[in-house]
Design a protein that fits this description.
Layout lengths: L1 H4 L31 H22 L5 H8 L7 H12 L16 H16 L8 H11 L4 H10 L1 H4 L2
Helix pairs in contact: 2-6, 3-4, 4-5, 5-6
């Protein structure tokens, strides 16, 4: 629930990064507080894009397994359980290579990943995830993909049925 109170559904830790949409007054000592859920999701999308770029530089595939291993390392989490739960909740494959977040064609799979991570980080069910905030965050992160995303959302009944 802390992630929901902070408008930070993926519990992004405080660092030197100055996030767009961060509250001016940060009262949580560990996690960033955002002005809206959309800005919390924007930050998550930006982090996923940086993971994609870093994995490419390291010659690692951009997969759910690699993403979660970086996001929730074993020194802080039961990473394997986190991966298994994300795969189950998001109906995803752990080893399938994913397209970069900045590619609007990746939105379907990656939005399920983000939603599943929200469930784990905030202790909520998939039906409680704010899918509108996920898409708003995506549009804030990648404004050039707005038309492609809107087209995709119009055609995806599955997305609305979580």
């Amino acid at each position: 629930m802390r992630g929901l109170r902070n408008n930070n559904p993926l519990n992004i830790r405080r660092t030197a990064t100055r996030w767009l949409g961060a509250r001016i007054e940060q009262t949580d000592k560990s996690f960033v507080q955002f002005t809206s859920m959309a800005y919390g999701y924007r930050a998550a999308w930006k982090i996923l894009q940086s993971y994609y770029e870093r994995f490419c530089q390291q010659g690692k595939p951009f997969t759910v397994r690699n993403i979660i291993s970086r996001w929730a390392p074993p020194n802080e989490n039961d990473t394997e359980a986190y991966i298994i739960n994300v795969l189950k909740l998001g109906s995803l494959g752990g080893k399938e290579k994913l397209l970069p977040p900045s590619n609007a064609s990746s939105y379907g799979r990656l939005s399920r990943l983000v939603a599943a991570m929200t469930c784990i980080e905030c202790g909520i069910r998939m039906q409680q995830v704010d899918t509108e905030a996920i898409s708003q965050g995506y549009q804030l992160a990648f404004p050039g993909n707005k038309e492609k995303l809107e087209e995709w959302l119009r055609g995806e009944d599955e997305y609305r049925d979580w």
